[in-house]
Design goal:
Blueprint (H helix, E strand, L loop, with lengths): L2 H13 L1 H6 L2 E9 L2 E8 L8 H11 L5 E5 L14 H17 L4 E9 L2 E8 L7 H16 L5 E4 L17
Parallel strand pairs: 2-3, 5-6
Antiparallel strand pairs: 1-2, 4-5
Helix pairs in contact: 1-3, 4-5
């Protein structure tokens, strides 16, 4: 491992990797060339994607040789090609049959906003909008279920405006 790769890995381990692990993912440095740090993610892609801007900011401040970050999946986990039956429809079926019935106990509901190239966009409503446990529900419940039942799913993105939630099941004060 080159010194620059080791330096970038150390910076990530001290700053970002604990957050990635807490969100259900993993991250390691593959290479640093031409100012671009190539990072391989494992586990939930949604654990890393929301942090890319933070990762770039921290790396460029700590390691001036790095100006950009590029994420790649492990070789065996490349985005599958969509099958004949639309991914959105298959995700919608799983959400309607398995997921919404469970979170209804917390006055919640999930809406499938869309699906593109394996990425599913979900919006939480009701008791889930603004709930302090929504991220845990998404990363440890919904995303693994969707990835297991719909193999074309690469990851899940929460598009909810949680700040607009008026009656969350678990408010921040309940933690």
């Amino acid at each position: 491992m080159s010194d620059l790769v080791a330096t970038v890995q150390t910076v990530l381990e001290r700053s970002v990797i604990p957050a990635v692990i807490a969100r259900g993912g993993g991250l390691r440095v593959l290479s640093v060339e031409g100012g671009v740090a190539v990072l391989e993610f494992t586990g939930s892609p949604g654990a890393v994607l929301p942090l890319v801007a933070r990762i770039e900011t921290q790396l460029s401040a700590a390691v001036p040789e790095v100006s950009r970050v590029r994420l790649v999946a492990p070789p065996g986990n490349r985005a599958p090609q969509p099958s004949g039956n639309g991914i959105r429809e298959r995700v919608l079926q799983v959400v309607d049959s398995d997921i919404n019935s469970v979170i209804a106990a917390h006055r919640g509901h999930v809406v499938v906003e869309g699906a593109d190239q394996g990425w599913v966009r979900l919006r939480f409503e009701g008791g889930c909008q603004g709930c302090s446990m929504a991220e845990v529900t998404l990363r440890q419940g919904i995303e693994p279920t969707l990835r297991q039942r719909v193999p074309d799913v690469v990851g899940v993105i929460d598009v909810t405006n949680h700040a607009a939630g008026t009656n969350p099941f678990f408010s921040a004060e309940k933690r």
